[in-house]
Design a protein that fits this description.
Mean pLDDT: 91
Helix content: 25-40%
Length: 417
Amino acid sequence: MSGGALGPGDALPPVRRLAGELGVSPGTVATAYKELRGRGVVVTRGRGGTAVAAAPAVASRRPPKVPEGLRDLAGGHPDPAFLPDLMPPAQLSPGARSHRSAPRLPELEEAVRSWLGADAVPVEHITFAHGALDCVARLLSVELRPGDAVAMEDPGYHHLLDLVQALGLRTAAVAVDDEGMRPEALSAALRAGARAVVLSPRAQNPYGGCFSARRRDALAEVLRSAPEVLTVENDHAAEIAGAPLRSLASAGLERWAHVRTVTKYLGTDLRWAAAACDPTTLARHDGRLLLTSGWISHVLQRTVLGLLGDPATSAQVAAARAAYAERRRTLVAALASHGIAAHGVSGMNVWAPVRDESAAVNGLRSRGWWVAAGARFRIASGPGVRITAAGLEPADGVRLASDFAEVLGESEATYGG
C-alpha cells in the first residue's frame, strides 16, 4: 500500500488466499489485517471484505469564497444585528494556578444544569468543551476505532461530515425529513454496524427538521435495541431554533451525550459548549480532555456565564428567535407560492431540492444572490441548495423566491423538465 500497488478503495486478498501466496499461517495474515484496521490503514466492509481506507478528506466540503458584490446566503451565519457585544469579565484570571483541579466554574456549571434541565435533559453529569465540533471529535475518538461507522444525517452539516472522515471513521448515511432522522433509515445503519449516531433534535443543518414527540419516541425505540451505540445529540441552535427540544437524552438510552453551544446567538467567537451525558461517556471525554487542553478557559467561561444571566442579552436572543422564524417561514411560503417545495421548519436555513445544483447556484449568482450548493452537505441524498435565511428580511425573501422560480424555469427550458 505504501508502495502504491494498492490505492484507496482497492480490495485486499482474502486471508486464506494471501496466506497461501506468502507461505504463512492464516492467523498471521489475520493478525496483520487487524493491526492495519487499528491503524486506520484498511477498513472492513462486512461481506465486501477488507479494503484500503480512503485518505481523510479534511477540505473537500469547505465552502468556496463568496464572489464580490453578491448577497451572501450561503454561510450559515446569524444576523450580526442580533449578537450581543462581547465584554470580557472585569476580573481576569490571576494566572499561575492549577485549573485542572477545578476545570469548570461552579457557577457556570450550575447555570448549565438549570438551562438544560428546563428542557428535561438529565443533568447529573455535565462537562464543557471548546465548541460542538471539539466535543463531538473527542467523544468519537475515545469511543471508536478507525474504520468504524458513524450514522450521520443526510443531508447533514458539512463540518461534521468532514470531521468523521478526518478521524478515520466511515459515514453511514441516514435520510432526514422535516422531523429529523428517519427511524427506518437509522435502523438500517445500525444493522449495517454503525457504532455511533450524530444527529440534531432541532434546527437540523441544512434541512431544518426538528423532532416531533412521535419521531423522538420512534428513534429512541430504534436506539434502545442497540444499547452499545453512542448517541450524540447536537443542539447547536438551541435558543434560536424556533422549536421546542424533544431530546433523546431523556429517553432512557444507555450511552448518550447532549451537546449545546452558544455561537449562533451569543457570539461566533465564543468557542464553548456544554454537554450532559451518561457517566461512562463523561469519564472518557474528560479523561481525554485532561490529557490535551486540560480545561476550558475560565475567562471564556465567565464571559458565557455573564451573557447567560444578562436580561438584555436574553431579550436580544428572544428577538433573534422571532425574527429568524419570520424570515424562514416567509421564504418557505414565498417559494411554495411559486411551486417550489422547500424545507425549513426550524433554525436559520432552508433547503430547496433542485435538479441541477450548478444551474441553480449560477442562476441566482447572476441575480445577485449567493447560495450554497448542496453537494458538500450530501452523502447519498438528492441534489439541493441551502439558503441561510437568518439575515434575509421578509421582503428580500419574497424577491429571492421570485428570482429562484425564474432560475428554475430557465434551467428546465435549457435542460428539459
